[in-house]
Amino acid sequence: MSFRHAPATRGLIYVVVAATGWGTAGAVAAALYGRSGLGPLSLTFWRAAGGFALLLAVRLLRPRPAQRRDVVRPRKRGAAACRVLATGLGLTVFQAAYFCAVRSTGLAVATVVTLGSGPVLIALAARLTMGERLGRGGVLAVAGALGGLAVLVLGGDPVGAGGTVRPAGVGLAVLSAAGYAAITLLTRWWGRQGVAGAPFDTSMWAFGICAALLLPAAWAEGLLPHADDLGRTLLLLGYLASVPTALAYGLYFAGAAVLRSATVSVVALIEPVSATVLAVALLGERLTAATVLGTACLLGAVGLLVADEARGMRRLPRTAVVSAAAAPAAGSPAAAGPGPGSRPVREPRRR
Fold first, then answer.
1. Nearest to 329 by CA among 122, 188, 142
2. Which one of 203, 263, 265, 305 is at 20 to 30 Å from 254 when CA atoms are compared?
3. d(CA 324, CA 319)
4. Rounded mean pLDDT, 321-338
5. How far apart are CA 198 and CA 176, in angstroms?
6. DSSP codes, 202-257
7. What percentage of the chain reaches a pLDDT higher than 90?
């Protein structure tokens, strides 16, 4: 399997497949809860460990161009290790909290809250820590996201069927989004400093760190599945590690390399849509009016951020636009995510 840069049409297909695959991860987790005996931390461990093993195999087997060997200074090697460790820590929070949210409040709400609040947290944090201008669209997006979260938390039916909105589950989804936002902001800052590593390698090692960090907690929770229906459990675990993890992220990197970040962000909205469809059709979750309204507010907030990004790209000089479009989008686990939420790095104005 090759992850080389693809033409734009093929790249679009890659990102569509990746986003659809990400949308199935929570459904697989929900299907495994109960009968398999595995909890959210154990599932996150097996996803990370399996994804790391598969990505490592791809890295070892794919042809690599001959490169000039340079002497790597210990300081640079240490900085690279710190970057990978920070990415792994954020990925651990992102993935583990997401699976905990799926178990607590259902697949549809957990996915929408995570992906809807993530880009908004990124926009707010970038304004506070990096001085990025929020803009009118960003302000409206933040207001819309907060309104959507309020509707979900306050309007949920406490006695409803599966997929009931529970404040604790919404909180876990926001925590997951915070882990995703932290990695995205760090990746953006490293890119500005000119020290960002290769997205594929960073993601691969981040999954390895995630598995190592979760091993003690997963062991305490119950690392091994029940013997009952073991074949089905192993099949679903294999799917979780391969399709929405190794395959999806590999396709994402290949597609994002040739697409504008705004395009990638819009296509990534397939993930919450596909997760919601699976939640209703296969898991029997019930969507109340409050859930639908809150979901619409959150996805609308993401749409406002994407539109604001597109306007910002049109204002940039052509050289800066080419530079921003060529850079890897920051929503993957190198920037972790189930989906992208990055914005272009604007060149500072010369005074």
1. 188
2. 305
3. 9
4. 41
5. 24
6. HHHHHHHHHHHHHHHHHHHH--SPPSTTHHHHHHHHHHHHIIIIIIHHHHHHHHHT
7. 32
Residue 232 has pLDDT above 90, yes or no: yes
Q: Residue type at 227? A: A
Q: How many Å apart are CA 234 and CA 58, to the nearest integer?
A: 21
The dihedrals phi and psi of 194, each to the nearest 5 degrees, come to 75, 25
> pTM value?
0.80
In sign, the C-alpha dihedral spanning 261, 22, 297, 146 is negative
Chain-wide mean pLDDT for the chain?
79
Rounded to an integer, what distance in angstroms lies between the CA atom of residue 311 and that of residue 167? 35
- The angle subtended at Cα 98 by Cα 30 and Cα 269, nearest 5°, is 90
Residues whose CB falls within 8 Å of the CB of residue 25, separated by 6 or more in sequence, listed in order: 47, 240, 244, 245, 338
Asked whether 62 and 130 are in contact (CB, 8 A), the reply is no
Q: Which residues contact 64 (CB under 8 A, 6 or more apart)?
A: none
| Contact in structure between 338 and 97 (CB atoms under 8 Å) | no
Sequence letter at residue 52: F
Side chain identity, residue 170: V
- Six-digit token pair at 223? 């690392």
Task: Please enumerate in sequence order all residues whose Cβ is within 8 A of that of 220, keeping only pairs 6 or more positions apart, or say none.
Answer: none
Nearest residue to 121 (alpha-carbon basis) of 350, 331, 325: 331
Which stretches of 40-193 are DSSP H helices? Answer: 40-61, 74-105, 107-129, 135-155, 167-193
User: Would you state the pLDDT for residue 341?
Assistant: 40
d(CA 196, CA 187) in angstroms, rounded, equals: 7
CA distances (Å), origin 190, targets 62, 143, 341:
27, 29, 16
Provide the residue type at 25 as one letter: A
Spatial distance between the Cα atoms of 228 and 36, rounded to a whole number of angstroms? 7
Q: Tell me the residue type at 108.
A: A
